[in-house]
Specification:
single chain, 7-stranded parallel β-sheet, binds pyridoxal-5'-phosphate
Length: 357
């Protein structure tokens, strides 16, 4: 869980931690948590932990009334159970790993506060593994347009029958409309989500059960069918989601040290690159000037004011994709909300303890 490390930070706002490192702005994080829990209170939100992979941040979500979590990996489920944060966990992903799944079921059953474990299934094979591992409850995962997991909507009812015959209880359906998260125009996004959710609604009618689980940060307020929304990126945000009309603020930065200055050429080099940033959504953003390129362990930046920079300075970059960026790091540093402007802010280490699989 969270450990307080130091109560000092540099005058320019950078922190005294080895770089490259993740820095979380608590004020922005709190804004995001408050905004989301006002829109989707309590169990209306099933936060997806894969975006932040950190039990300390998951605990903050519980303080805002969200106790049901979405997971992508069995390691995330096990970590939440060990941290005592598991009331109702959904593995929104298919698994054939019967051994690890059985371990998670046993861990949940043995914890002080036994957790409800639900697993997404979309085939006879995944149903078989869930039943063999001792899972009690499943959701039928339905394909609503994203070419990824999920059965054809018209097959959902038959799959639910198979699951029930295997002794599983079917809580309902899930259908992740990931292909619609970045539809730029809000009206178009809403239309497309409505069509995708019609498929999920029909599948739900065939399957039965109470749960219709769907959604993400880009569609969190456009979905009138889902009983719960699986958003996670809204907590820390990234520059790709920032291009949409969302009410969330950038809360995550990768901080790096300037290790070389080329005054004649007009560039500086800092010690973060591809290996500390998820780059599948593009380059990170730097507010101090242009970002030329990232290589493995370097970023080359062209400052707007070249004279202002010396070796040893710190820079902060906003990542384009939060999930893979966080997964590359072992910890993040939470910089507390500034109570009195100019006063030192507390810096707390949050382990990224839900990493790996
Ligand atoms: C199954 C599932 N649900 C929900 C989400 C939503 O996450 P985000 O908050 O990043 O939009 C994702 C993201 O990839 C996902 O894979």
């Amino acid at each position: 869980m969270a450990t307080a490390m130091t109560d000092t930070n540099f005058a320019d706002g950078s922190i005294d931690a080895p770089t490259p490192c993740l820095v979380v702005d608590e004020a922005a994080l709190n804004h995001n948590l408050r905004t989301m829990s006002a829109a989707l209170p309590g169990a209306r939100l099933r936060p997806h932990v894969k975006a932040f992979k950190c039990t300390a941040l998951a605990a903050r979500l519980t303080e805002h009334g969200h106790h049901h979590f979405t997971c992508a990996t069995l390691a995330e489920m096990a970590g939440l159970i060990r941290a005592g944060l598991a009331t109702d966990l959904l593995l929104a992903n298919e698994t054939l790993d019967e051994v690890k799944l059985r371990d998670v079921v046993a861990l949940a059953a043995g914890s002080n506060q036994p957790a409800r474990i639900t697993v997404a299934v979309d085939s006879a094979e995944t149903i078989k593994v869930a039943a063999a591992a001792g899972v009690a409850e499943v959701l039928i995962d339905v394909n609503v347009g994203l070419p990824r997991c999920g059965c054809a909507p018209e097959y959902a009812g038959a799959l639910a029958e198979q699951a029930r015959s295997a002794g599983l209880s079917v809580r309902g359906v899930m259908g992740y409309e990931g292909h619609l998260m970045m539809v730029e125009e809000r009206a178009e996004r809403m239309d497309k989500v409505a069509s995708a959710m019609e498929l999920l609604q029909a599948a739900s009618t065939a399957v039965g059960g109470e749960v219709i689980s769907a959604g993400g940060t880009g569609t969190f307020d456009t979905n009138s069918i889902a009983t719960e929304i699986q958003a996670g990126s809204f907590t820390l945000m990234d520059t790709q989601y920032s291009t949409l009309d969302l009410p969330f603020q950038q809360a995550l930065w990768v901080e790096a040290t300037v290790i070389s200055v080329n005054r004649a050429g007009g560039w500086i080099v800092a010690d973060c690159g591809l290996k500390s940033l998820g780059m599948d959504h593009g380059d990170p953003t730097w507010s101090g000037g242009d970002l030329w390129f990232c290589s493995d362990e370097h970023v080359t930046l062209a400052p707007a004011d070249m004279d202002a920079w010396t070796v040893g300075d710190r820079v902060r970059l906003a990542p384009a994709h939060v999930d893979p960026t966080v997964a590359k790091h072992e910890r993040m540093w939470l910089v507390s909300e500034e109570v009195t402007p100019g006063s030192p802010r507390a810096i707390t280490e949050w382990p990224v303890d839900l990493r790996h699989w």
